[in-house]
Design goal:
Blueprint lengths: L6 H36 L1 H21 L1 H16 L2 H27 L1 H7 L4 H14 L3 H16 L3 H24 L9 H26 L14 H34 L2 H38 L2 H28 L1 H6 L9 H17 L1 H16 L4 H25 L3 H30 L9
């Protein structure tokens, strides 16, 4: 059934569904921010190591999460059709693929120390990163399984529980950080390894909580009944939809990971400032990502009903809302850069003045890419909703790897602009992606809604 909603109604619906998702994403980033702040209080060297280690973990997490993101539009479309069997099959095989990816990547965490050396990091920094990831890396498996179940719940518009599960994990992370980084409450003082234990603990808490909720609230879907049984046809569908999403995410996060590696070449102070600026930019990006998730769900619903008008109106509304958020963020980064950066450091930190100088410049660059980063996130969400993932994967790869990373290197090192040049390359790469992905959605993808639906 096709329904014509006003733009105001679309905005209201996006807000109601999106606020818990935004809160959930912010809560997830808050876990990373907590690690950054508390490790920064411990030592700047540990902060630099956790910045690099978290980036490494995040790259693989985002790559593997393609299957979880693929489950979201499929469940939304199956739900619109009233197909409970289809949504159960898609969710189960998303769990299978995520578990398989997690097991395959475990060795990259356990033996991450030589990888850091190959990337040109110092022996001391590589050792600390290796210590962190040898523990925290095991969290990749529960983290990916949680993402699949959260996508399933979000697609069914149960977004509030996604938020509260993230809050619970954040509380567990803070308590574990306080105990094991600094040796409080009778726990051993483990420094960076304590932060790794806290990170792993938060992922395990999330998994237990989300599984318990699904068993309690959605028994009719029987997600975990005969979970061991393979469903090769559906596994192939989720794989074909999710793998391009994974590569798309890998392209974008790879751009930021490459920038972290290049900042590491500039020294510990530059890398620490980069870590702080990335955490702040990530927090604001989570608002765009929450809106993007809602766009995926609502686009998937419209896709299931073949309702092009509903899809277009919702897309315009989500894009405008993202632009308004970007405008507010730009103002905050330009008006209050020093107070924002100061939160991450002790007042008596010897390198505080140097980090502030570098960080203020990086936040100015972060303000520049707010508009384009939000625009590309919304376009990607809409494209995933109509199950268009292969071409966006190629466009993202070109934008981030062919344009963004080379420009970062050229401006940062060849042109001698240092950290500012590296971040300016991020702006260029994200800008190219925003233009190409929006052209893709408003052209071929939207026109394609008039063709017969194929959930593949």
């Amino acid at each position: 059934m096709k329904t014509r909603m006003t733009y105001t109604a679309h905005a209201r619906a996006i807000t109601v569904m999106g606020l818990p998702l935004i809160g959930g994403h912010l809560g997830q980033v808050a876990i990373g921010v907590t690690d950054t702040v508390m490790v920064g209080w411990y030592s700047i060297e540990a902060l630099a190591a956790v910045t690099l280690a978290s980036t490494y973990f995040f790259v693989l997490l985002i790559f593997g999460s393609g299957f979880a993101w693929g489950v979201m539009p499929m469940v939304a479309a199956y739900d619109a059709e009233g197909d409970e069997v289809g949504l159960r099959r898609a969710t189960r095989m998303g769990l299978w693929l995520s578990l398989g990816f997690g097991l395959l990547t475990l060795p990259l965490f356990v033996w991450s120390r030589p990888v850091m050396g190959l990337m040109g990091q110092t022996d001391a920094l590589s050792d600390m990163v290796g210590q962190y990831l040898a523990i925290a890396g095991w969290g990749i498996i529960p983290a990916l399984l949680v993402m699949v179940l959260k996508s399933y719940l979000a697609a069914l518009e149960r977004t509030q529980v996604v938020f509260w599960i993230t809050v619970l994990a954040g509380i567990a992370n803070v308590l574990a950080n306080y105990a094991f980084i600094f040796g409080n409450w009778g726990a051993p003082e483990l420094g960076i390894r304590g932060a790794a234990i806290a990170s792993l603990s938060s992922h395990l808490v999330s998994l237990v909580a989300v599984v318990a909720y699904v068993l309690w609230a959605m028994p009719q879907h029987q997600i975990f009944v005969r979970l061991w049984r393979p469903d090769w046809d559906m596994l192939g569908r989720v794989y074909r939809l999710g793998l391009p999403i994974g590569f798309t995410g890998l392209s974008e996060v790879g751009l930021f990971a490459a920038s972290a590696v290049m900042m590491g070449w500039l020294g510990t102070v530059a890398l620490a400032a980069h870590g702080i600026a990335v955490q702040l930019a990530s927090m604001t990006f989570m608002v765009h990502l929450g809106i993007s998730n809602v766009a995926t769900i609502r686009a998937g619903n419209a896709y299931g009903r073949r309702d092009a008008d509903h899809l277009a109106r919702g897309a315009i509304t989500a894009t405008v809302m993202s632009l308004l958020v970007a405008a507010l963020t730009i103002a905050g980064f330009l008006i209050w850069p020093e107070p924002l950066i100061d939160v991450f450091m002790q007042r008596n930190e010897p390198a505080r003045a140097e980090i502030l100088v570098v960080g203020v410049g990086l936040l100015a660059m972060a303000a520049l890419f707010q508009l384009v980063d939000g625009a590309q996130a919304i376009a990607l969400g809409l494209l995933r909703g109509v199950q268009d993932t292969k071409v966006p994967m190629i466009l993202a790869g070109i934008s981030y790897w062919v344009v963004g990373i080379p420009v970062s290197y050229l401006l940062g090192f060849v042109a001698g602009m240092g950290g500012i040049g590296i971040w300016l390359g991020l702006v260029v790469g994200l800008g190219v992606a925003a233009v190409m992905l929006n052209l893709r959605f408003w052209g071929p993808a939207l026109r394609g809604l008039n063709r017969p639906a194929t959930l593949a």
